[in-house]
Amino acid sequence: MEMLPGVGAPLLVARAAALADRDLARAAALLTRGLAEHAPEEFDGLLDLGAVLPALCARIARAKRRDERGDALAGIVRALADGLVPGGLVGDGLVGDGLVGDGRAGDGPASDGPAGEGGDPAGSTLRTLAHCAVALGDHGTADALWRRVLRVVPDAAQEYGAYLCHRGVVAHAAGEAAEALDLLGAAAQLLPPDHPVHGHLVFLERDDRMDVLLAALFPGFAAEFERRGRYHELEVSAELYPALWHALERDEAAAVLRELATLLDINAADAAHAADTGNSGDGGNSGDGGDGGDSGDGGDSGDGGNSVEVDDAEVDSADAGRHNPLALPHTLAVLHREVALAAIAREGAPGPELVPATALWSLLLAHPGFWARAGIDDAEAAAELRRDLIGELLELHRVHGARALDVGRAADMATHLRCLTAVREGPDATRALLADGPLAAAVPGAVDPKLFAWAAQRAGRLLDDWAADLVRTATERVDDPDAVGRLPVGVERDYEAGIEILDAAVRQGFAPVTVLCTAVEWHNKWQYGLYSISDWDAVAEVIERATRFVDLLAEQCTENRPHLKENQVLGFHYLERGLLAGRGEESVRLLERAKAWDPGNHEVDKFLDQRRMDQVFDPVREYTADRRYDDALAALDRIRDTDANHKTYVKLRANALYGKGKRELSDRDFDVAEECLREVLDLAPEITDDPTLVQDTNQALSTLLNNRAVVLIKAADNAPDGDTESLLGLVAARALLREALDRHPANQTAADNLTGTEERITRFL
């Protein structure tokens, strides 16, 4: 800007006038500088400030850039305004002193002049200054000036309102939604009820509320949604439910979600009532809503005219009240799917929105009312849509669940697994996926199981494919040639390596039947190989390691289905555990479990009968082990000897009789001892699994017979010479000793006693 220090106002004006014809820009700059450096009264009679100042400001506005000239002019405008307004301009808010809701003059002082502009030169000047401030973009000064103008020129309200509309449109275009809403709200107070800004303000308020709602549902995504009017059903439903609308106004996320849940509860109750009364409720707008258009066009940079373009779309609340109850959940389903897909595109992995998107669409597309609302009565077209949309969502769970499992993100994997499992199980389980959030009652009414069947089947196949892929990977480790070559003889595959892969998945929560069945089967084969090389400690360890997989598998299976592989592997596991558990109650319990899981395995019946029989005879064995032979024999007397248990019965009786005979022999009760031992020999032919029983019994009986013979021999030795009775005793002793030697030829004592007895008989004769 040209500098002319010390030059008075008259000379400045003359200099500017001389330049005006050949260099208007320099003339304007010179005047601007002069006005900034001199008091306005110095130009009295020299310049028409009412004409010059607006022209200078207009040049700045047309240049569309703010520099020191604009700053200087803004200072001039404020200085002139301060001279006209006692106490200076106050504040820069939008709703200032004396302005009330209808945009008319308020209760402020009216001493500035008559009510009309024509009767108050100060009012006209303030108005001109306000236009200048607008042109310079000094909105704080412009607002303050317009409020003062309205005190003396109430008819200027629409002009000020149009200016605020323009600013609101500019703010909206710049993404400043809150500022735009405030500006248009202030404009609405100034403009008549039929002005389009009122309708547009409704849309902006809805936009603001929907931004709050979307931010509560999808934190971090609200700014990315395409607006406006796309979520018409959501907007209308929220507006019709005051508690939700007020929560949105307060921008309280927790309250918003709580009231949304209540709204969906009400929607579900209305749907149930409509179903009971036979009213389908298909009366309202079934689409995405009206076309909201842009938020407005800034138009000319000036403040004249109408600078806001507003949509013609209007909301009929009465129609909204009759909307189809599936319209709102449909909108929510669309939103959740869009956000889920956007998250995958942006992050490479889905966020939490994928589960409710899957649940909502699976339920909606199986709801007869959805197809009635959509106007689709072509069954094949409906089936194709179900296949495409639900198949896409379920496949995402399958793919990203497997990826999460591979990298150890157990929580993410569990989320995808839970969703696929729920859809496979049916509508009730799928609805339960929404139970913990605001969408619990989102899909009202009954879902048709037949329409849901494809989704359930598809989820089941994807789970099977997922499990099969994991088993295939584990099998490659099991059959690794290098690892197999290092295994002990008898173990043909590296089951341990494959089990480790399956176990890692199971520990993260991925435990479908296929995976668990394979894990149990590999444990069975592993321990069977160790059994073949008699590594009993290793067998017991492998069986113990299998129990965790067995318990998880049993939870998902049903007994008495021997045609299923999972039942067969469970039965084999319990059979092996039962055989290793001894002969007691635990063995019987495990074998009974084996039979329950796989009743077709007849080997189990054989072992179970044996263990049950063993259990009956266990008291006999315990008595015999404790040398309580009389109790053992008494217990046997209480057991019925049948064809099924005869072999065990005979063996246990022989054992008890043998023990008792030996004991009585030691106690020299020869009659009882002989009776017991001879009965043992009577039973011995039926006992084929005790090769020493006869030999041991004959040896004991030989000792007993020798002892009997000794008694007779001693009696003969003490008898008088020629006593015939003693001779008969010696003859009886000789017979006993001969039998003793027959039964146990190695009994040297009996042999010596036999020789002595025969000598005694010879002397007697």
From TrEMBL:
Q: Where is this region: Disordered?
A: 101-122, 274-310
The highest taxon in the source lineage is: Bacteria
List, as start-end ranges, the regions of compositional bias called Gly residues.
280-305
Return the SUPFAM superfamilies for the record.
TPR-like (SSF48452)
> What PROSITE patterns does the database record attribute to this sequence?
TPR
Protein's organism: Streptomyces beihaiensis
**Which InterPro entries does the record cross-reference, listed alphabetically?**
TPR-like_helical_dom_sf (IPR011990), TPR_rpt (IPR019734)
Q: Where would I find the TPR repeats?
A: 654-687
Q: Which UniProt keywords apply?
A: TPR repeat
Keyword Aminoacyl-tRNA synthetase: yes or no?
no
Q: Which residues form a coiled coil?
A: none
Q: What is this protein's name?
A: Tetratricopeptide repeat protein
